[in-house]
């Protein structure tokens, strides 16, 4: 028989999970707002410090909360009645969590570095650079997508739609 959490441990794990998700959503929203604000910078220092603030948010309110959300979500799915692949809503949350984490690792971090490098090289005039503008727009679109995914995952947590995953007939006969 698989390990199951008692109610007190489950409540503690759910609280940690909810706090990590809230931090992740807040960090994503903060990054998006600072990204939008970036276009309104009045000088090179403001531009650079806005990017530095985005880096701090990335390090503290995106990476660790995202990983903690993944970890606690996996524990909750394995140690409760929901399972990781029993219900579509859990499976969708797992896939979207992995997707948003990978987008952050593979794209958003690198794009932020590109913006910082352009500002360090060109100062305030970097705002006029086409590479800066296209990278900035990529960050805004991707952060918006991630925020949508996080909001969608929050909604399906409470609605629990889509039903159970159908078992393969071969597994039913075995």
Mean pLDDT: 92
Low-confidence stretches: none
The CATH topology assignment is Four Helix Bundle (Hemerythrin (Met), subunit A)
The CATH architecture can be given as Up-down Bundle
Task: Report the portion of residues in β strands.
Answer: under 5%
The profile of the biggest β sheet is: none
> What structural class should be given to the helix and strand makeup?
mainly alpha
Distance between the termini: 18 Å
Helix segment tally: 5
Extended strand count: 0
Our Rg estimate from Cα atoms comes to: 20 Å
Helical content class? over 70%
Order of helices and strands: HHHHH
> What's the CATH C level?
Mainly Alpha
Shape: elongated
What's the domain count? 1
In words, what does this structure look like?
The chain is mainly alpha-helical. It has a single domain (7-173), classed as Four Helix Bundle (Hemerythrin (Met), subunit A) (Up-down Bundle), CATH 1.20.120. Helix content is 79%, strand content 0%. It contains 5 helices and no strands. The protein has helices at 7-38, 44-78, 88-122, 130-159, 169-173. It is elongated. The two termini are 18 Å apart.
């Amino acid at each position: 028989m698989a390990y199951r959490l008692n109610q007190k441990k489950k409540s503690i794990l759910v609280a940690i999970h909810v706090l990590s998700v809230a931090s992740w959503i807040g960090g994503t929203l903060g990054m998006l707002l600072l990204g939008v604000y970036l276009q309104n910078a009045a000088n090179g220092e403001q531009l650079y410090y806005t990017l530095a603030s985005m880096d701090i948010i990335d390090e503290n309110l995106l990476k660790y909360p995202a990983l903690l959300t993944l970890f606690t979500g996996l524990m909750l799915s394995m140690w409760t009645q929901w399972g990781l692949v029993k219900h579509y809503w859990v499976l969708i949350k797992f896939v979207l969590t992995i997707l948003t984490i990978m987008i952050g690792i593979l794209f958003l971090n690198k794009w932020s570095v590109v913006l910082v490098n352009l500002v360090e090289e060109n100062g305030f005039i970097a705002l006029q650079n086409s590479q800066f503008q296209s990278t900035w727009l990529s960050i805004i679109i991707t952060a918006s997508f991630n925020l949508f995914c996080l909001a969608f995952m929050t909604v399906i947590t409470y609605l629990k739609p889509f039903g159970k995953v159908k078992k393969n007939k071969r597994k039913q006969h075995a």
